[in-house]
Write a structure and sequence with these properties.
The protein is mainly alpha-helical. The protein has a domain at 45-136. The protein has helices at 10-22, 31-65, 72-91, 98-118, 133-136.
């Protein structure tokens, strides 16, 4: 039986590689590509955490600076982003410190997005995340009212 090619039929390749691993048939394994795919799974978790952190920060900024537009959907989005980050961290405890590393990037993007979504000048929002990450990730925590 011919092993499906990684570049021409990815799905068939994944199935053949899974079968080869289960059978402990090292000769059929495409080691380089298997290693690359396993690595990409970890990277996907990192990207998912960054995206959810950005989503969370956008809604926290809007919550603080646009109180007249608060809605249940914002609360739901805040809760869901926290839950998704928590889920990833529970499944991969080695990523526990990753959100802290990504706050600067996620906040910069969230700030820009919040400005676009609210129509407020970018300068409305602090240049650096004004909240502690522990607060941001804490269930039911919301930023204090803007002065």
């Amino acid at each position: 039986m011919t092993t499906p090619d990684y570049d021409t039929d990815f799905y068939a390749w994944t199935q053949a590689q899974a079968d080869a691993i289960r059978a402990k048939d090292l000769a059929r394994l495409d080691i380089a590509h298997v290693a690359e795919e396993i690595e990409s799974l970890g990277i996907a978790d990192e990207h998912a955490i960054t995206r959810q952190l950005q989503r969370l920060l956008v809604h926290l900024l809007k919550w603080r600076y646009q109180p007249t537009h608060r809605s249940p959907s914002w609360s739901t989005s805040i809760d869901q982003a926290r839950d998704r980050i928590t889920d990833r961290l529970e499944r991969s405890p080695s990523l526990r410190d990753y959100p802290a590393q990504r706050v600067p990037l996620a906040y910069r993007r969230a700030r820009r997005q919040a400005a676009k979504e609210t129509g407020f000048p970018l300068a409305t929002f602090p240049e650096v995340c004004p909240w502690a990450l522990a607060d941001v990730l804490t269930d039911d925590w919301l930023p204090p009212e803007a002065p």
